Amino acid sequence: MDGQRAVITGGKAFTFGHLHPLDLLHIAWTSKGLRKIVMSRSSATIWRRSLSTVEKLPDCLVGMNEPQYARLMFDEICHFCDAGNAKHVIFLARLRCCKACGLEKFESLSGLPEDVARPVFSITPYTRIDWARGYMGGVKYYYIKEMHRLQAEYCRIRHPTLKSAWVSMKEQDFRAMEKFNANFWSPKEGSVGS
Ligand SMILES: [Zn+2]
Q: Considering only CA atoms, which of 125, 121, 119, 127 is closest in space to residue 169?
């Protein structure tokens, strides 16, 4: 019985793994049964194979699993409102955003806000997308809600050594994401990151 299941699963792995990640996501959303198979941990190999079929696609981001990464890269659903026209990926926040939510959630700041610690400000996700005008400019628009969430997390850590370890871990991840963002080339749109 187990052997039979292994053969069937193996057959599915072979078939699904050659699909584009977006097709794989659509299959997962078709029915509960398929979702269970495609989204299970044991299907990680299927996802890795599927992602590898996309030319020049960078490796899955740290902190995300393969289905989450596939959604971020290929599914144009807004992280905030579920609208289906979220063209922009904000890599520093690991999310997709539509224009309406971009205007609402991201703000330019003239300097360090009074209630935010400098280390927190330096790891706050931002985008250079000018949502109102629809182009990439030089101004940074900060993800304000995330800045306050990070500030609260920062304040909860009392011990100075732990606090500085937290900052250094977050900074390392943030700088790596900034580098990823700067070098990203979208296989679909031929554009760089946000
Ligand atoms: Zn939205």
A: 119
